[in-house]
């Protein structure tokens, strides 16, 4: 139980829930926040770190190694949401989203792997999204960032298979967290041809998270199980049955049939 765990983005939502759960189970947890001073009551150590800053990532890893001498589990959880029609999305918003959701996790992985390889052991868990399996309207940039991380994991597993390190993805559907407060909404043009459809989707997205989202504790329990598995799977999906089933439907239905169902579901 003296495993050392790093969780990025652990001041809120899923990361905080995982941190609390694993701390209660006896693990040594280091979480990150850009403003840890805002969370003095955190049940585990919160280190100041912005995943978009390379120096913060290096300092974080060095800090944990200098105290604990090892990192057993890295949970790449820090991430933000995104909405906006692709045609009207600001490119700087897209870059910012990819920086947090894709380049940041890669930087964490690159900095953690040398130590894990040396110890011939380690586990990396990337928190992705069910949205990474399906190109959802007005969320394309978010879907693409999570899809990219899913695929990267598959490549990484092959590259490091001889070094005793496991890498897995956990893809949640809607989870009841503060995700909306940090989300990039790259759109505000009420005269746009997209506005009506976008706004309708925006409202239903918010409702899905606030009223229909699952409890983050469910993800924490899954993470605990994964940490204790000898041979974890590559992809884990967790969420409401209909959201999980949509991935199965996409696999088995012809493209155009699935697209028609998705558009009808989104009233498009
Ligand atoms: N909630 C959902 O419905 C849902 C669904 C699918 C996937 N996910 C994924 O689950 C993960 C956690 O989301 P959540 O719902 O728990 O959101 P949340 O409540 O908004 O928490 C996000 C966490 O990420 C941290 N964070 C944001 N930007 C950061 C940055 N640049 N550097 C370091 N930390 C940063 C935040 O910390 P500070 O602000 O304190 O720095 C916070 O602790 C994300 O990757 C998200 O994409 C969420």
SSE layout:
Blueprint: E1 4-7, H1 13-24, E2 28-33, E3 45-48, H2 54-68, E4 73-76, E5 82-83, H3 91-119, E6 122-127, H4 140-159, E7 165-172, H5 179-182, E8 184-185, H6 195-210, H7 216-227, E9 235-238, H8 241-252, H9 255-265
Parallel strand pairs: 1-2, 1-4, 2-3, 4-6, 5-8, 6-7, 7-9
Helix pairs in contact: 1-7, 2-3, 3-4
Taken from the alpha-carbon principal axes, the silhouette is globular
| Strand proportion | 5-15%
The secondary-structure element order is: EHEEHEEHEHEHEHHEHH
Give the count of structural domains: 1
What CATH architecture do you see?
A: 3-Layer(aba) Sandwich
Proportion of residues in helical segments: 40-55%
Radius of gyration: 19 Å
Main beta sheet: 7 strands, parallel
Query: What separation lies between the terminal Cα atoms?
Result: 50 Å
Structural class by sheet pairing and helices: alpha/beta
CATH third-level topology: Rossmann fold
The CATH superfamily turns out to be: NAD(P)-binding Rossmann-like Domain
User: What is the strand arrangement across the widest sheet?
Assistant: 3-2-1-4-6-7-9
Top CATH class:
Alpha Beta
Number of strands: 9
Describe the structure.
By secondary structure, the chain is an alpha/beta fold. The chain has one domain (4-265): 3-Layer(aba) Sandwich (Rossmann fold), CATH 3.40.50.720. It has 9 helices and 9 strands. The protein has helices spanning 13-24, 54-68, 91-119, 140-159, 179-182, 195-210, 216-227, 241-252, 255-265, and strands at 4-7, 28-33, 45-48, 73-76, 82-83, 122-127, 165-172, 184-185, 235-238. The chain has a 7-stranded parallel beta sheet, sandwiched between helices. It has a two-stranded parallel sheet with strand order 5-8. Helix 1 packs across helix 7. The longest helix is centred in the middle third of the chain and has 29 residues, at 91-119. The chain is globular, with a radius of gyration of 19 Å. The termini are far apart. The model has no long low-confidence stretch (mean pLDDT 96). The structure holds NADP nicotinamide-adenine-dinucleotide phosphate. NADP nicotinamide-adenine-dinucleotide phosphate is lined by residues 8-15, 32-35, 50-52, 77-80, 100, 127, 129, 172, 174-175, 177-179, 182, 209, 213.
């Amino acid at each position: 139980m003296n495993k050392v765990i790093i969780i990025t983005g652990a001041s809120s939502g899923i990361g905080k829930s995982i941190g609390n759960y694993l701390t209660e189970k006896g693990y040594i947890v280091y979480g990150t926040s850009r403003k840890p001073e805002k969370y003095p009551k955190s049940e585990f150590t919160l280190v100041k770190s912005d995943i978009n800053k390379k120096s913060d990532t290096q300092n974080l890893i060095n800090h944990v190694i200098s105290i604990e001498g090892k990192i057993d589990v890295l949970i790449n959880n820090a991430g933000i949401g995104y909405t906006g029609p692709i045609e009207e999305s600001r490119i700087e918003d897209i870059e910012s989203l990819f920086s947090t959701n894709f380049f940041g996790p890669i930087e964490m992985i690159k900095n953690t792997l040398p130590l894990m390889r040396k110890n011939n052991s380690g586990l990396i868990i990337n928190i992705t999204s069910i949205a990474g399996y399906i190109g959802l309207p007005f969320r394309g940039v978010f879907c693409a960032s999570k899809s990219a991380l899913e695929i990267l994991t598959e490549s990484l597993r092959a590259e490091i298979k001889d070094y005793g390190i496991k890498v897995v993805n956990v893809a949640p559907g809607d989870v009841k967290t503060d995700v909306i407060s940090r989300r990039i909404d790259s759109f505000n043009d009420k005269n746009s041809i997209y506005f009506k459809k976008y706004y309708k989707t925006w409202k239903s997205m918010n409702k899905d998270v606030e009223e229909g989202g699952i409890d983050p504790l469910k993800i924490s329990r899954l993470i605990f199980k994964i940490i204790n598995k000898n041979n974890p799977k590559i992809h884990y999906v967790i969420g409401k049955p209909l959201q999980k089933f949509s991935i199965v439907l996409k696999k088995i239905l012809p493209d155009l049939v699935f697209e028609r169902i998705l558009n009808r579901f989104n009233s498009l």
